[in-house]
Amino acid sequence: MSERGRPASSEHDQSASGAPANRFRSGYGAPVWHLLLLVGCFAIAGWVALRLAGEATAVRMLIWFVAAVIIHDLVMFPVYAAADRALLTAGRAGYGTGARPVRLSVVNHVRVPVLGSVLLFLVYLPGILRLGSGTFTSATGLTQEPYLGRWLVLTAVMFAVSGLVLVARLLVARRSPP
Length: 178
Fold this sequence. Notes:
By secondary structure, the chain is mainly alpha-helical. It has helices spanning about 20-30, 30-55, 60-90, 105-125, 125-130, 135-140, 145-175, and strands at about 90-95, 100-105. A two-stranded antiparallel sheet has the order 1-2. The two termini are about 45 Å apart.
């Protein structure tokens, strides 16, 4: 018997000397399928890179990609990581006083509408900022005027719905017995 009360020959006590899959996992740190998935992703990325290599705008796309990675990793990630940390420290919504105050996490009630708003902003960025309005108007016959207002309305609706869900959760938690 081992220290944990299992027979010494159990598969939990076998280390790198066990089956090849166990040796691989202990050396690599993840299952074999993880490595196969990564190799597949790199193969697809390589194929796309080869397809784009002949494009006239390949250098511009590479510059845009490198700039996006740098801006995200060095500027944006620290900003939204700090904002998320501040949100986690603010932490919990309380309702009521007395013997049993209700405490619920508000983090996801802020994260979800922020994520939705940011994704909509990124998708509709040219329309919201009215970039390329001449091209847009000549191609569609429409203007880019409504994009900003619609994005603001959608953002407000997402936050309002999230707030209503939080209030409903607080009320249900307050009424439920301890």
